[in-house]
Amino acid sequence: VIVGLGPVGAVAANLAGQRGLKVLALDKQTEIYDKPRAFGLDHEIMRVLGNIGVAGDIAEHVMPYRTSEYHTTGSRVLKRIVAASPPLPLGWEANYVFSQPALEAALRKRALSLPSVQIELGTQAVAIRSIDGGQQLTLRNAQGAERPVCARYVLACDGGSSTLRSRLGLDMEDLLFDEPWLVVDIMVEPHALNSLPQTNIQYCETARPCTYIVGPGRHRRWEFMINEGEAPDALAQPGAVEKLLARWLAPQDYRFWRSAAYRFHALVLRQWRRGQVFFLGDAAHMTPPFMAQGMCQGVRDAANLVWKLDMLIKGLAAPDLLDSYQEERLPHVRHTTLVTKELGRVICERDPVKAAERDERMLAEMKAHPEPTIRQSLIPGLSGGFIAAPGLACAQGDLFPQPFVHDAQGTAGLLDEFTGASFRLAVAHDIDLSALQPVVERWRRASSLQLTLIRLAPLSESPREAGDFQERDGVLQRWMADHGCKIVLVRPDHYVFGACATIEQAALLLDNLRHKLAPGARAAETAGVARFHNSQ
After folding, report:
1. CA torsion, ordered 456, 462, 465, 469, to nearest 10 deg
2. How far apart are CA 115 and CA 326, in angstroms?
3. What is the DSSP letter of 377?
4. Which among 92, 176, 399, 469 could disulfide-bond with 405, CB atoms 3.0 to 4.6 Å apart, if both were Cys?
5. 3-state class percentages of the chain: helix first, strand second, coil last, to nearest 5
6. Which of 160, 137, 417, 418 shows the shortest CA–CA distance to 283?
7. How far apart are CA 196 and CA 245, in angstroms?
């Protein structure tokens, strides 16, 4: 059962349904909320949406994210954050702005097309208790009627005010960021578009810090810090918003869409799992919006968890695989949230003396290092969990690149379109397949886990066999060269389990994967590491 069908719950429903898992997805609302809330996503999330099959459906509702500039009083530029330059490491633009209602509609439509997914709207979970083999939820429909439903697993995607989190008495770590802001969305009239900034701007001004973001089409968003003594509800009224926007636009230059007051929090759940109940998205963490990572964090949660549940349900892994969910996601979310918090501190500084010190420090940094910050460099990989044992491989926890390729039949596309979101073993063109194949076959006989073999063809030759691919831009070839590896073992969520340089090391890497999927796996890792060092 998935409780909550916002973007995170809808992604989880699609990923589970694609794997044939029987899903009941609930949402207490009867309709998709028609106003924009989440506004940014990145290439990792677009890759997941591409795997689900909705990337094309939302194409007209997304746009590459513009450069972000930090301005102080007098429009001096304190910092620039830009997207990585092509060639694109994951096959998608590095960052996007998007329309949340359109994304939710596409995700729900796709989920409804999956035979094992059932969706109930106007239904909420009002109680939960453990039973033998799973959980029993009490569901209440829009008419107030209640009924019990039993599930092996429950995914709580029910937002920042999560009912299930409250029912289970779980608390969150406060990372000490709590600021009141007003979010305003408008549709700009065509004649006024060119009068607005063409980049995203963080106005780091002590009188009222604010943010301006270029959205898809004519959509523009402002976020204004609420001053002490101001009533948030009063500031959100159209007349008050009109005064706030007067610096940029006259009332006849735009159509008001919505305004809403929020408290921007930095919170992380201490316990992401209670038995067979897992928390995802805002139910597990709340991130200020200054890096556009709020929804991204939740989609990563779903992509991380669903394949693990699938493996356990199908008897391909031991139960302790599920312990890696919090082990992997909590440090990643905490790091990203702390980075976002520090960016927020830059923007939210209200003390004139401290703001002046900030300006001088950041201007000096800009002069010494004029190159902009690459947005993707601020997002970490995995620091632990279900990855190869330390010392057994390299690149553990990195995101696996997704090059644009063509196969032996001349069909072109992104690599995931050929391989799906499976376990993959990617090898360089100069690896001897005749020596590698027996290693792979031995592993397949010892494990019922599906493993897709990918071989890069030389850039000078066309692919000749099934499983051979030639890159267009050399993205994966350069990544392998940078990491000093020729063989890469990749997880279904596109994180690298481990990479190595030789067939002998690949055999140990595959053994490590098999052992990690077995009960009591971790105790066996030390011996594997020693064998690896002896083979070098």
Report:
1. 30
2. 30
3. G
4. 469
5. 35, 25, 35
6. 160
7. 11
